[in-house]
């Protein structure tokens, strides 16, 4: 492992020992194009005990995006994360509710900008890729650009994490749409209308899944861009608990299926209960047809109850599908209230400014 770079300009050149292969340094611009320099850009960095890396992350993004506002939100760190982030030039705020999802919710609520860059504070993501992601977001009027991780460093992206990411991304792709290659990436660029229409209900690492499903459900324009990924610097440890957080993400996926695809969810439950009811009822029915008797009355009652529950579940699915459609329409209308990336809201003559146009100053 080589030493950290000593100055911000050197940080713009990827370290061949820590940056994943696949993207050359000259493939990404290190400054914003002139037509994007007027954008208000906010770099949002959630942190928890990242004293080994936070200063480098802040310096890298200050050098790459000199006009951007850089915010570090500390999540009850017990080391020198806050002190080092301030010394590096970031605006530091705190969020007492533990968990990355809680921090993202607070950041999205507090910060006003045209473009939001969300990145982890562990110094594993490639800061010089930010102008490319922002340019793609604005030029194509997208709402989310996801930094898909590319690396050959085993320590940076362990096989177990890689498999879990592929499995969870595949589940979401199968249910909600196959439009994201790396669902659990911590490096994303958002438009203002994405951020201000996102409810942020998750509390922990499952926030990335919620971000992805929100974009897929509203059919937002989005894209992936491959970005180099490197291992953590010496002295930095991952906060991700592989199995615990993996099961939390899987649980969230099931909850989102129930809430966003209720007809599918309750239809599956209905089908399972109906199948069990038929399996239990068949021998009882055969015996009744042969003898006219029902010797296993409890089994018959259980089968009848399961079939009733199956029809009740299907009915719930039909009702909730209508409710979900209404919720989706409301979220879509809220989303459309915010201008697309790169667009400014059109001025509206309210009739109170003494204008000479038709209808100016006319009482309603």
TrEMBL record:
GO MF assignments: transferase activity
Glycosyltransferase 2-like domain mapped to chain residues: 43-195
Signal peptide: none
Keywords, comma-separated and alphabetical: Membrane, Transferase, Transmembrane, Transmembrane helix
Pfam families found in the cross-reference section: Glycos_transf_2
Region (Disordered): 341-364
This protein's record includes keyword Nucleotide-binding: no
Sequence intervals crossing the membrane: 265-289, 301-323
InterPro entries from the UniProt entry: Glyco_trans_2-like, Glycosyltransferase_2, Nucleotide-diphossugar_trans
Chain intervals with Gly residues compositional bias: 351-364
PANTHER family: RFBJ PROTEIN, UNDECAPRENYL-PHOSPHATE 4-DEOXY-4-FORMAMIDO-L-ARABINOSE TRANSFERASE-RELATED
Protein name: Glycosyl transferase
Organism: Skermanella aerolata
Taxonomic lineage from the root: Bacteria, Pseudomonadati, Pseudomonadota, Alphaproteobacteria, Rhodospirillales
């Amino acid at each position: 492992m080589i030493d950290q770079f000593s100055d911000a300009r050197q940080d713009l050149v990827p370290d061949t020992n820590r940056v994943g292969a696949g993207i050359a340094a000259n493939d990404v611009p290190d400054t914003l194009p002139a037509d994007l320099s007027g954008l208000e850009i906010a770099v949002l960095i959630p942190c928890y005990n990242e004293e080994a890396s936070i200063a480098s992350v802040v310096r890298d993004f200050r050098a790459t995006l000199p006009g951007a506002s850089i915010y570090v939100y500390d999540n009850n760190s017990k080391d020198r994360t806050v002190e080092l982030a301030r010394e590096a030039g970031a605006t530091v705020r705190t969020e007492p509710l533990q968990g990355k999802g809680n921090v993202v919710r607070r950041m999205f609520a507090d910060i006003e900008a045209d473009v939001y860059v969300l990145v982890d504070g562990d110094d594993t993501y490639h800061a010089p890729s930010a102008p490319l992601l922002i340019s793609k977001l604005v030029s194509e009027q997208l709402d989310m650009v996801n930094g898909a991780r590319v690396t050959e460093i085993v320590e940076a992206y362990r096989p177990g994490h890689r498999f879990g990411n592929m499995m969870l991304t595949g589940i979401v792709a199968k249910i909600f749409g196959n439009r994201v290659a790396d669902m659990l990436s911590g490096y994303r660029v958002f438009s203002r209308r994405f951020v201000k229409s996102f409810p942020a209900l998750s509390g922990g690492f499952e926030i990335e899944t919620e971000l992805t499903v929100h974009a897929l459900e509203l059919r937002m324009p989005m894209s992936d861009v491959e970005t180099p990924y490197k291992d953590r610097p010496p002295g930095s440890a991952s906060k991700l608990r592989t199995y615990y957080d993996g099961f939390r993400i899987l649980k969230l996926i099931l909850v989102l299926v129930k809430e966003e695809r209720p007809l599918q969810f309750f239809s599956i439950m209905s089908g399972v209960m109906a199948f069990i009811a038929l399996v239990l009822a068949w021998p009882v029915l055969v015996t009744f047809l042969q003898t006219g008797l029902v010797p296993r009355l409890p089994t018959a009652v259980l089968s009848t109850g399961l079939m009733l529950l199956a029809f009740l579940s299907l009915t719930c699915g039909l009702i909730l599908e209508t409710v979900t459609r209404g919720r989706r329409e409301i979220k879509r209308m809220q989303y459309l209230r915010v201008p697309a990336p790169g667009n400014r809201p059109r001025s509206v003559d309210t009739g109170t400014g003494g204008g000479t146009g038709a209808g100016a100053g006319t009482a309603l």
